[in-house]
Amino acid sequence: MERLGGVASASELRRHASWATIRIAVRHGRIVRDRHGKYALPSAKAAPRAASALNGVLCLESAAQHHGWKVKHSPQVPAVAVRRKRNLPADRREKVRLVYVDLTPEEVVGIATSYLRTVMDCAARLPFDEALTIADSAMRCGHVTKAELLLAAEAMPDRYRARCLRVAWHADGRAANPFESVLRAIALDVPGLYVEPQQWLEPVGRPDLVDKRLRLVIEADSFEFHGKRRLLKRDCERYNSFGLLGWWVIRFAWEHVMLEPEYVREVLTNMVRVLTGLGPPEPRALRRAA
């Protein structure tokens, strides 16, 4: 569930676990059945109660999860927005992340900040990869459009505008999950690399990321989708087809992207170096298989 972004549909869970395993996880409280066909981590479902107890509303990643969007990491404590200058005793501030802000009625929906306000708050306050993951998911769910995001970003205060515009400009609902969104965020920081998600390459298929100018395919390879022999065989044939068509293929595991982003950045930087004729890759980017 953590790798799925903290919230998941039944069909998403079934790709990774049997119904029996899911029922046992629900019975033991490891995951929560939110409503029909929708599941969440317990922390996501405890957040609305925390916001209600403080007479506040969910914001940032907590609001994103409440809206059913994916996040890079599930927040360890709920993020709750309360009005400015409100004085709360220390014991009531424990185990929550308080954000002091005055919200208009249009910026609140139920117990959480509105769709647009949530994306803009995340773009303003979170690291780029985390904010992009949330913006991608909001677009994928159909809750916001790129035009709405760009307009909202333009209206942000000066100190946040550049950060919000960057997220709005690069947000893309075609990204399938947080794994792909975070990988794209890293790639967007690599000079000379211009990637797009889920571009159809005839006749092979739709890679996770593509730089058409460099003829480079970048794949986010999850063990859950490649851990069976028939899937390994299929992927070998797929990558071979890309190679035969003159495409370079680079692959990263979830652990690379989420835990070792500097390695990912080094590999992509050196790939641009090789493909643009600037020279061979630097030795530190090369890893010997154990």
How many DSSP H or I helices?
Answer: 14
- Order of strands across the main sheet: 9-10-11-12
- Give helix and strand order, one letter per element, not per position: EHHEEHEHEHEEEHHHHHEEEHHEHH
Strand content: 5-15%
* Share of residues in helices: 40-55%
- Shape from CA axes? globular
Low-pLDDT residue spans: none
Supply the number of structural domains: 3
N-to-C span = 30 Å
Output the structural class.
Answer: alpha+beta
Mean pLDDT: 89
Question: What Rg do the Cα atoms give?
Answer: 21 Å
- How many beta strands in the DSSP annotation? 12
User: What characterizes the major β-sheet?
Assistant: 4 strands, mixed
Could you explain how this protein is built, in words?
- With 290 residues, this protein is of the alpha+beta class.
- The protein folds into three domains: 1-40, no CATH class; 43-170, no CATH class; 178-285, VSR Endonuclease (Endonuclease, Chain A), CATH 3.40.960.
- 47% of the residues lie in helices and 14% in strands.
- It is built from 14 helices and twelve strands.
- The strands form four sheets. The protein has a four-stranded mixed sheet with strand order 9-10-11-12.
- The radius of gyration is 21 Å and the shape is globular.
- It starts with 6 loop residues before the first strand and ends in a 15-residue tail after the last helix.
- The model has no long low-confidence stretch (mean pLDDT 89).
